[in-house]
Amino acid sequence: MNKDFAARRRSSLVWRLALLSVLGLMISMPFVWMVSASFKPRVEVEQPQIVPLHATSHNYPIVLNLQEDPVQKKKLDLHFGRWYFNSVFMAFGTTLLQVLTSALAAYAFARIKWRGRDQVFMLYLATMMIPGVVLMIPNFQAMVSLSFINTYHGLIIPAAFSAFGTFLLRQFMMSVSPALDEAATIDGANHWQIFWDVVMPLARPGLIALTVMTFLGSYQSFFWPLIMLNDAQMFPMSVGMLSLDTSYGQQTELIMAATVMNVAPLIIVFTIFQKYLVSGLQLGGVKG
């Protein structure tokens, strides 16, 4: 009986591994093709083979303005280094502000008792149901009124508040024993000290998860920078790469080379913080 059970278990495990392997291959194929296409000359880029027949690394220096584009017979008017900086700066700024405001709001909703607290929280959470497109015009008009067009302020400040981030951190903070607050209060601590010295260290998994998700989302932001910016020097990578779609046609090999360099920081960040992201979301989903 035990042998039959062990055999069925091994068979089930083999099938699960096979299914996961197939799914993993399907998911990874677009990335593999992107990397492959970035090393192809233009005449090969539309061909289906994964391994380039005549591999070349020239696409990368062309994108970086270190070499002339053989199609246009000149260096491209790209500001790759500046766009890289803009993307990283925007992501860091948005992440810093969003994590800070979410943590402060979560503390107020989880640890401080005041009339109407839960009702206000539910109202704040309900804003997640409003499509972002609906708020696009009012937000843009507000940025125009504040003279924030073509500025980092206009890219970062509208994204500085997050109902989801507040919800996630509130779940962690609600799991912290109220006895810790009472003990800290007896020792003379105020709310600010309790927030920084007691609650925040215990909410670290949620903070890391929110930080990683916010950074990844902000780094890839496209539509808001597209309507907020008209100065090429201010473009993030996501918008700047549109410059590769020129009157000479869509230069796919250059777009793929730029995309590989663009996603490299995302892959590095996700690889380093993957376990913290998963564990943080799992803990946040069961607490509270």
UniProtKB/TrEMBL annotation:
Protein transport is among the record's keywords: no
Keywords: Cell membrane, Membrane, Transmembrane, Transmembrane helix, Transport
CC annotations in GO: plasma membrane
Transmembrane domains' residue ranges: 12-33, 83-109, 121-140, 152-169, 207-227, 254-273
Compartments (UniProt record): Cell membrane
UniProt-listed GO biological process terms: transmembrane transport
Stored PROSITE patterns: ABC_TM1
Transport keyword on record: yes
Family annotation (InterPro entries): MetI-like (IPR000515), MetI-like_sf (IPR035906)
Pfam families: BPD_transp_1
Topology within the bilayer: Multi-pass membrane protein
CDD domains: TM_PBP2 (cd06261)
Family: Belongs to the binding-protein-dependent transport system permease family.
Protein name according to UniProt: Sugar ABC transporter permease
Annotated organism of origin: Capsulimonas corticalis
